[in-house]
Every structure is written in C-alpha cells, then in structure tokens.
Design brief:
Strand content: under 5%
Organism: Azospirillum thermophilum
Protein name: TetR family transcriptional regulator
GO molecular function: DNA binding
Keywords: DNA-binding
Number of helices: 9
Order of helices and strands: HHHHHHHHH
Number of strands: 0
Length: 227
C-alpha cells in the first residue's frame, strides 16, 4: 500500500517556501488526502492519527498542534471543502432564491469532496462506533454549515440562525449518504437528492414561520397566530 500523499514532495511545515496560499490550508489538503486514502484502503476504524501523520509526511511536532484527535483529522477534510467553496466569492444573483443559491453552494462543496469519496464512505460506515469523535467533529461541522449558508447569502448571525445551521446540517448528512455511492460523472443522483432535501427543508421552514408568533403582533396565545 502506498502511504505517500499524492502531491507530497517532502515534509510539510507551516511556512514552507514555495507553498502557494496559506500553509495551514496546504497542510489540510495533505492530511485530508492521506486520511481519506487510508480510510478507503483499510477502513476508518483501522486508521490511526499516527498513520495519517506518517502518510501525510507531516512531522509529529507540527501535526499534534493542528490535528490532536481523530475528529481534528476529519475536520481537515471539511475545511478543504469549505475553502473550495469560499474561494469563489461572487455576489449572489438577486434573481435567485435562497434555495437555488444553497443548491449551487452545496454542489460546489460535493464537487470538492469527490476525491475523498471512497474514504468518506468508509468514515460513514465506521463513525457510528466512535461517538466521541462524532461529537467533537460536530463543532467543525456546524461551523462549515454556517459558512455555506453565508456563502449563499443566507443570514445566520441573527435570531434563528442556529436552526438554519442545524437544518442545513441535516440536509448535508442525508445527501452525503447518496453522494458516497454516486459514481455518475455529473453527480446526477447527488443533485437530485440535494434538490429533494432542500425543497423539504424549505417547506419545514415555511411551516415553522407560520407557527412562530409575529414580533410586531400584540400579545396573544401562539395558537391564535397560525395562518
């Protein structure tokens, strides 16, 4: 088994001369590639943090600061996908609705995850046996979803933003189970699943808004505000 990173030419350290962009981003790419390749080859449950550090060619003295846990290793994959989306910072099309903007953003994120698909399939299979890793990774996952909403020009830094983040997290989790088995060249199955899930989430959001008391309405029982 080849444990060398695809693009590695030597140990990665912050500030490597000649490394384009942020050195932390470059290290994330190396660690994510190594972790997902090992997970695809031997299963996530058999992939240790030390294995990933060695395969990525990152000195332990550097690795342990940024990737101290298995959840931190998984977070590198999430950050790579986030960076791919956020590097394209274009103003939102005023003619597009929020659902369409979110669809574009999330498909760009899935496109960025294609190189890691086999490893992610192993992670999805094995992660339920690691509740602590899942719990710790949840913080990064929430941050990622919040930034995907911001990339789609959906405001999350106001009241109710947490519900939007949780909702998009649920959408991503359900579509991910389709994505890891989607070998179509254009990710058509993933696109169909994402469209279905976003439409479902939109209906739930509309229903919740109808049930929520209006802030400018006079005090009265919530049930009377329905409709």
């Amino acid at each position: 088994m080849d444990d060398t990173p695809d693009s590695a030419t030597g140990p990665a350290t912050p500030g490597d001369p000649g490394t384009p962009g942020d050195p932390g981003d470059e290290m994330d790419r190396r660690v994510a590639a190594a972790a997902m390749r090992l997970a695809a080859d031997r299963g996530w449950h058999s992939t240790s943090v030390l294995d990933v550090a060695r395969a990525a060619g990152v000195p332990l003295v550097v690795f342990h600061r940024r990737y101290p846990t298995r959840a931190a290793v998984l977070a590198s994959v999430s950050r790579v996908a986030d960076a791919a989306v956020l590097s394209v910072d274009t103003p939102p099309d005023p003619e597009e609705g929020a659902r369409d903007r979110l669809f574009d953003v999330m498909m760009r994120r899935f496109d960025a995850l294609v190189p890691y698909r086999d490893g992610l399939r192993a992670v999805l299979r094995d992660l339920p046996r690691e509740p602590v890793t899942s719990l710790c990774f949840g913080r990064q996952y929430g941050r990622s979803m919040a930034w995907m909403l911001r990339a789609a020009a959906v405001e999350v830094d106001r009241r109710g933003g947490g519900a939007l983040v949780a909702g998009l997290g649920g959408v991503q989790a359900r579509v991910m189970r389709v994505f890891v088995h989607d070998d179509s060249p254009d990710l058509s199955r993933t696109m169909a699943a994402l469209d279905t899930e976003l439409r479902r989430a939109e209906r739930w959001a509309e229903a919740l808004c109808r049930w929520r008391p209006r802030r400018d309405a006079p005090d009265r029982p919530a049930a009377q505000t329905v409709g």
